[in-house]
């Protein structure tokens, strides 16, 4: 997923305002219930997601520490910066 962009131009088309929002997503502790099949509740204690492989591969979605899929880890979204620029042209 790339940066979200909001572009506006005036009626005469000489001035454009570009707004780029960069969002940082981090995956924290694992929340997978390993004892669900027996009616209990137990988590493995994995504190943070670490990818098993390179970005863009299937292994990048598995945690190197606990072996769970990335979707079991708590997702934390932080806006990194809100950079606005105005250009004339």
From TrEMBL:
GO MF term set: zinc ion binding
Keywords noted in UniProt: Cytoplasm, Metal-binding, Zinc, Zinc-finger
InterPro entries membership: ZF_HD_homeobox_Cys/His_dimer
Transmembrane segments: none
One term under GO cellular component: cytoplasm
Locations listed in the record: Cytoplasm
KW Zinc (keyword) present: yes
Pfam families linked to this entry: ZF-HD_dimer
Domain ZF-HD dimerization-type as annotated: residue spans: 27-76
Main location: cytoplasm
Name of the molecule in the record: ZF-HD dimerization-type domain-containing protein
Species whose genome carries this gene: Urochloa decumbens
